[in-house]
Design a protein that fits this description.
Elements: E1 14-17, H1 20-26, H2 30-39, E2 45-48, H3 52-55, H4 65-76, E3 80-85, H5 99-102, H6 106-124, E4 130-135, H7 154-167, E5 173-176, E6 192-197, E7 200-202, E8 208-210, H8 215-229, E9 233-239, H9 253-259, H10 262-275, E10 280-283, H11 285-293, H12 298-309
Helix pairs in contact: 2-4, 6-7, 8-10, 10-12, 11-12
């Protein structure tokens, strides 16, 4: 019997992103962190990563043990997973190519990347936790990230999307927009578009400033995209951790609290609810767990309230 297409269901309203690589950067234990996210917070929608430089450290030699346990733990709790694919995935340096791939010419690393994407899709397309794929992350964003090849090719994205759809026509593919104002006039067009919202950032003068984009702008733009492309639009990344001029481990708690604290978390979630483009994936769950492990329960308790009170359908 053929599989039915697995469409994004309307519940739950809130999810979150989780990165083992970021857990290591924050020096928190990844399995304990994810279990707390699923168990204590009750998160039932996750965005997980398949970092190329983590799972193919040598050409053609794959090790997915770390991603396997994440997918299996999600399934254990009945959570739905949007699994990221490709070279550009969440968390610094944004582009996660293995060292050996940097030594290849463009045509060669393209073929290795396509092979890696095929391997990930074939491995997880029948996993019970899988709900969707996210292909690349803000793939055409030129102003942020360390991407030595400087490749922002629509042709490569079209080929990647065609590869995923050929291997797995049952799960929708999400692709994310690269700024707060642009529209995806050029193809490829995925099954679902995603966008991010940050309300408090540090500018080039190292001064904190609130976003210039009101909630209604994000909602208007998303509605225009939906009308033009006839594709759903979701909020794939909502700020829920600090933004500063240095990595979080080098920021004091007081510096962290300037751009993210329990009150601002509530504000941001309310901002997102007014945009009303669910599901909404919060960004910063690993940091909440770090603060909790350091004896500060503020963010964790605030997050628990958010997940329990924001409408789940």
């Amino acid at each position: 019997m053929p599989r039915r297409r697995h469409l994004l269901a309307p519940t739950p309203y809130l999810g979150g992103s989780f990165s083992v690589k970021y857990c290591r950067e924050l020096t928190v234990e990844p399995k304990a962190c994810l279990r707390a996210i699923l168990g204590d917070l009750g998160v039932r929608r996750l965005r997980l990563m398949s970092y190329w430089n983590e799972h193919e450290k040598q050409p053609g030699s794959y090790d997915f043990a770390e991603l396997d346990w994440q997918m299996d733990m999600a399934a254990e709790y009945g959570a739905r997973v949007s699994l990221c694919l490709g070279k550009r995935q969440p968390r610094w340096p944004e582009c996660h190519m293995p060292d050996w791939a940097h030594k290849l010419d463009k045509a060669e690393w393209y073929e290795h990347l396509y092979a890696f994407i095929r391997t990930v899709v074939e491995r997880y397309r029948d996993h019970p936790a899988l709900e969707s794929w996210q292909l690349e992350n803000e793939a055409l964003l030129r102003s942020f990230g360390h991407c030595p090849d400087k490749d922002f090719s629509h042709a490569r994205l079209r080929k990647e999307l065609a590869t995923v759809k050929r291997l797995d026509p049952m799960h929708p593919v999400i692709m994310t927009l690269s700024d707060n104002w642009g529209f995806p006039w050029r193809r490829p067009w995925p099954d679902i578009f995603g966008f991010s919202v940050y309300t408090m950032v540090m500018n080039k003068r190292r001064q904190y400033e609130a976003t210039k984009f009101a909630w209604w702008w994000h909602r208007f733009r998303a509605n225009v995209i939906r009308l033009v492309t006839r594709r759903p639009v979701i909020l794939h990344e909502l700020q829920a951790e600090p933004w500063g001029d240095r990595p979080i481990p080098r920021m004091t708690p007081e510096q962290q609290a300037i751009s993210m604290n329990p009150e601002r978390l509530g504000y941001n979630v309310g901002f997102a609810c007014r945009i009303d483009k669910a599901p909404v994936y919060l960004w910063g769950l690993e940091w909440w767990y770090l603060r909790r492990s350091q004896g500060d329960e503020g963010m964790w308790s605030a997050a628990r309230r958010v997940y329990r009170t924001v409408r789940q359908g």
